[in-house]
Protein: Creatininase family protein
Organism: Candidatus Heimdallarchaeum endolithica
Amino acid sequence: MNHNYQFLTWEDVKSLDKDKAVILIPLGSIEQHGPQNPIGTDYLISTYIAEKASEKNPKAYSLPPIPIGVSSHHRNFPGTLWFSPDVFRSIVREIFLSLKHHGFRKIIVVNGHGGNTSSIMEVIGDFNDRFDFIALLFEWWKDEQILKKVIGHSQVIHADEVETSVIWAIYEEYVKEEKFEKLTSSPMWGRYIGDLFLSSRTDQFTKSGIAGALNEISRENGLKILEACIDKLDEHIKLLSNYKG
Ligand SMILES: [Zn+2]
C-alpha cells in the first residue's frame, strides 16, 4: 500500500492508531550542489529515503517534502532558494501543530541538509518538552557505521563523493557524469582564524561549490548507502511505533 500521507483520505487519517503511527517529514534544501548535481539534491535524497521507509513499514506515513531550507550561505551561486531560520522554524512548528491537532504524537523528521539541523532541534526540543509528543531527527549522512562500511570513512561535507554518489544512485539522469573529471573541491567546510571557525558564505571557501573528498563517485556505493539508511530508518520507526511513553 502506498504510504504517502497526501494520498490518504480524512477517514483514513481518522482511523489510524495514533499511538502506533509514525509520521515522517522530509526536509532539505534547494541550493547549489556543485556543477554536477541538481540544486534539489538535499530534499530529493531525504524524500526518497522517507518514501522508501514508509513503503517498507506499515506504521509509517511520509509527508510531502518541505523542499526549501536554511541556505542563505549558498546564495551567491545561481539557483539557491532559502528561508530565514525564523521562517523555517515557524514552518516546522506549524506542521507539528497541525499533526498534533489530529492526534499524531510520533514524528521522525528526515532531514537532508545540515544547515537546517539546529533550527529543527529547537522546535523538536520545544515540542517534546511541552507536549505529549515524541519527535526525533534522522539524518542519513550522520551514520558513521554505514559510511565506514561502504566507503571506508565517515566524512560527508557538501556535494562531495558521498552526496554525489547517493543522488546519482537515485536520479542518474540529472547528475552530470561528464563533469566528474574536472571537479575541484575545498578540503574543509568554512574558514578558520587560528583554531576558531569563521562562519562564511560558501563562495568564500569553494569556487565550485563543493567541499570534501572526490576520490570515488560511485552509483553502487550510493545505492548501498541508501539501502542501509532506509533499513536504519525502518528500525527507528519500529522502535518509535512501539515506544510507550
Ligand atoms: Zn547537500
Q: What stands out?
A: The chain has a mean pLDDT of 97. Strands lie at 22-27, 60-62, 106-111, 134-139, 191-193, 196-198.
